[in-house]
């Protein structure tokens, strides 16, 4: 059985769990073993299971080579607890699996999980400001609208090239956008972009949009310092000064401006343990329980790094500002520590980068209800965050510009023509294609001639203009556009 990439979408953790079980059952060699003078068919040693599953996870693109043996043993403990495997006497249900010579086997029944039935969140339709709806206590006819009446003289002065008759129109003055309106627009367009990047028909199964706070998005975009770190309005939610000092100490080792470093051996390990203990006691991970499924879905895009980065950029905008700030500071510290060659090893047995992932994965991402692949999924996400934190934890400029342009469009006074919808959304970006020189010259000539012909026709047929004024205007046209309209204007003058 070949491993397959499990992409974004609902129940991704469950789909991954079933995928790994199927691969493990298909790939684990089963042999005859002896234990206490008795032979057992189709079983395997615990150490053999660790070897097989560790290799399987490392070569699987859903997890990757950074999966450790310790994580593999923990997953096998969960396999034993969930009756994916059992010992040779048929016992299971406890997480007492160890990497030793004990014998295990697969049970005859299918251990795959069924997909949970989540209660429907319902689609939250963001109501945009209705510009045609009058304010309370005010009738529609009193909305300020300035009609524009154009006679032929005004029309000619305003248009050097006319394209047909100008239809009746009026200026539409928009009602002022409130802060709530703007926040709703930010929420709607942000979620719409996230859905598109993930390639999903709907976000309903991976995100309860009612739990997305529009104020958080706007604050995360605009309340930032020069380094792009969120600034909090409520200072009581800031990290304690002593934790910030500890994080700066390790991130900037050996240069530390605001902390006098003791000289005793192992000081840096004590500082690291202090940071780990602080983040480990949080009741909820930084990415929050509510957004677990959306971040797990993003992991399905890691084979397309640019898409994954954009999806994480947008997803991190949904976080409460205090969570986003802590995530920015923590991941930045983790990345700097991992690359700091001057910092003494923080563990005797584990590489510094692996230690960062193991120490902080659970405080960054985990599920409220225990999910058996929590640790592996969190490790995968945190590794990617460390490698791309500067881009992921910055404000996505393209999204910001798009929403700001849309807000400006909604606030602008607009000309509304009869039968047209002035509230139509902005058209998507258009792209041009190259044409030949001959096609360009033809289009330029024919386009100009058609427009000028329409202008000349308008002058001649206008009954409000005297013959003398008509000749004067036609001569003016002939003078200004002699290369194109000489023949046409002469013909009209004669007529």
TrEMBL record:
Superkingdom, taxonomy of origin: Eukaryota
Keywords in alphabetical order: GTPase activation
Sorted alphabetically, the Gene Ontology BP terms of this entry are: intracellular signal transduction; positive regulation of Wnt signaling pathway
Which SMART domains does UniProt cross-reference here? DEP (SM00049)
Q: Which residues form the Rho-GAP domain?
A: 201-393
What start-end ranges are recorded for coiled-coil regions in this protein? none
Cross-referenced InterPro entries, in alphabetical order?
Answer: DEP_dom, Rho_GTPase_activation_prot, RhoGAP_dom, WH-like_DNA-bd_sf, WH_DNA-bd_sf
- Carries keyword Ubl conjugation? no
What PROSITE patterns does the annotation carry? RHOGAP
Give GO MF terms, alphabetically. GTPase activator activity
Q: Which Pfam families match?
A: DEP, RhoGAP
User: Is the keyword DNA repair assigned to this protein?
Assistant: no
Task: Kindly provide the name given to this protein in its UniProt entry.
Answer: DEP domain-containing protein 1B
Which species expresses this protein natively?
Zosterops borbonicus
């Amino acid at each position: 059985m070949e491993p397959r990439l499990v992409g974004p979408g609902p129940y991704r953790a469950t789909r991954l769990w079933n995928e790994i079980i199927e691969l493990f059952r298909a790939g684990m060699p089963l042999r005859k073993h002896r234990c206490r003078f008795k032979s057992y068919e189709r079983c395997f040693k615990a150490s053999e299971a660790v070897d097989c599953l560790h290799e399987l996870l490392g070569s699987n693109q859903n997890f990757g080579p950074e999966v450790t043996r310790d994580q593999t043993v923990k997953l096998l403990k969960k396999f034993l607890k969930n009756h994916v495997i059992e010992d040779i006497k048929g016992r299971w249900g406890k997480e007492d699996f160890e990497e030793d010579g004990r014998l295990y086997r697969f049970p005859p029944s299918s251990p795959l999980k069924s997909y949970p039935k989540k209660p429907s969140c319902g689609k939250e339709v963001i109501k945009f400001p209705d510009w045609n709806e009058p304010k309370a206590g005010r009738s529609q006819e009193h909305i300020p609208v300035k009609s524009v009446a154009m006679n032929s003289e005004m029309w000619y002065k305003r248009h050097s090239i006319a394209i047909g008759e100008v239809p009746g129109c009026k200026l539409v003055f928009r009602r002022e956008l409130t802060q709530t309106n703007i926040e709703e627009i930010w929420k709607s367009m942000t979620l719409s972009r996230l859905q598109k990047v993930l390639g999903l028909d709907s976000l309903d199964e991976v995100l309860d949009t009612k739990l997305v706070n529009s104020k958080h998005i706007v604050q995360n975009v605009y309340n930032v310092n020069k380094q792009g770190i969120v600034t909090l309005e409520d200072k009581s939610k800031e990290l304690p000064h002593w934790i910030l000092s500890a994080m700066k100490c390790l991130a900037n080792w050996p240069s530390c401006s605001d902390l006098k470093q003791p000289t005793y051996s192992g000081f840096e390990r004590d500082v690291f343990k202090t940071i780990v203990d602080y983040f480990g006691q949080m009741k909820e991970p930084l990415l929050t329980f509510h957004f677990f499924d959306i971040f797990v879905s993003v992991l399905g895009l890691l084979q397309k790094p640019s898409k994954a980065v954009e999806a994480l950029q947008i997803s991190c905008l949904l976080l409460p500002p205090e969570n986003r700030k802590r995530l920015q500071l923590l991941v930045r510290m983790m990345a700097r520590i991992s690359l700091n060659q001057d910092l003494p090893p923080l563990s005797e047995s584990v590489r510094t980068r692996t230690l960062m992932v193991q120490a902080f994965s659970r405080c960054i991402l985990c599920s409220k209800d225990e999910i058996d692949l929590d640790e592996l999924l969190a490790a995968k996400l945190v590794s990617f965050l460390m490698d791309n934190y500067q881009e992921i934890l910055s404000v996505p400029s393209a999204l910001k510009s798009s929403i700001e342009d849309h807000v400006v469009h909604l606030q602008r006074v607009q000309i509304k023509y009869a039968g047209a919808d002035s509230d139509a959304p902005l058209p998507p970006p258009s792209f041009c294609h190259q044409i030949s020189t001959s096609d360009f010259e033809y289009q330029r000539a024919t386009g100009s001639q058609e427009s000028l012909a329409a202008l000349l026709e308008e002058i001649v047929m206008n009954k409000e203009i005297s013959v003398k004024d008509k000749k004067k205007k036609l001569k003016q046209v002939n003078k200004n556009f002699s290369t194109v309209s000489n023949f046409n204007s002469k013909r009209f003058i004669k007529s």
